[in-house]
Design a protein that fits this description.
The model has no long low-confidence stretch (mean pLDDT 94). The protein folds into two domains: 259 residues, Aldolase class I (TIM Barrel, Alpha-Beta Barrel), CATH 3.20.20.70; 63 residues, Nucleic acid-binding proteins (OB fold (Dihydrolipoamide Acetyltransferase, E2P)), CATH 2.40.50. It has seven helices and 16 strands. Bound molecules: iron/sulfur cluster (SF4).
Amino acid sequence: MMAEIVYVDEKSEIPLYGVDFIGIIDRGTNVIELKPLTLCNLKCKYCFVSAGNYNTDFVVDPNYLLKKIKDIIKMKGNYKIEIHFAPYGEILLYSGLFNLIKELWNIEGVETISLQTNGLLLNEEIIKKLEKTNVTRINISLNSLNQDKAKFLSNCENYNIGNLLKNILLLLKTQIDILIAPVWFPGENDKDIEEIINYVLNLRNKGFSQKRIQIGIQKYLIYKTGRKLKKIRPKSWGYFYKQLSMLEKKFRIKLKLGPRDFGIHKRRIGASLNVQKNDHIRLKIISIGRWKREYIGKLDDNYGIKVLLNKPIPQPEQLIGKDIEAKIIKANYKDNILTASFSI
Ligand code: SF4
């Protein structure tokens, strides 16, 4: 079944801050995180946001994003700003990407533009465009060099690891830095992680610097609304870092990367809303969400809020435009992400 697509532009009145799955996430640093779409070409078995499987998908108008980004940069100060594309989906499916990147470079203070991708849509033409638009860094999720394992994890019969590796080599011929970002699934891809480390070391031995080809191993995290890999039990953060230390010693490679490695530092955060968990607030339901029970509420022109219904309703549209009172169930001040619940 094809998902419905909601186009988020100024006319839609859907605010660009406050909702985790679309718009702009400001974590109080020099990095401005963009989520311009929710479409994905994969349905990975471990996807923590269950992308590729939504009832409704969202695409944000690049001009709407641009306008808000300019405001946020003005507030943060126009120096050392990184724009990081990290959608709940695949960024190379975003048709406005290259024009948006060009416009972003025209903003004073933007020094880095980076993006996350599963890499499967890379080809010569796209790599040329990425090169021409001066993308600084691409983070590629790559969990195994083994074709069958990669197919299994990505839930994709056509996953072509050979092609992806060929495209990584092509990217290395450009000025774009690469960060290989495998997720470690304990007991599932332990050997694969070591093979990926060796792959990165081999490239460095061929002359590519640490900056040109980095590796950032990620911890497997489980979320209630995400997809889970059967039988895999995630480990504690302590165990994860211990494992990284062991691999660092074994391969003589730096694996523990922190904000400093990426030039991330604290910066002013946009005005946050003065709401607390368990507060009751009035809001207007402005759009349906990704799932049947999910909606987007509007608090003001800037701030949206994810609203979860206690049960799905037969005609979801009937709530659109309604003013309701909802209870805040999550107020993440660090990221300015809000969630409320509403019972019908
Ligand atoms: S893990 Fe990434 S590539 Fe895989 S389905 Fe989720 S968003 Fe898409």
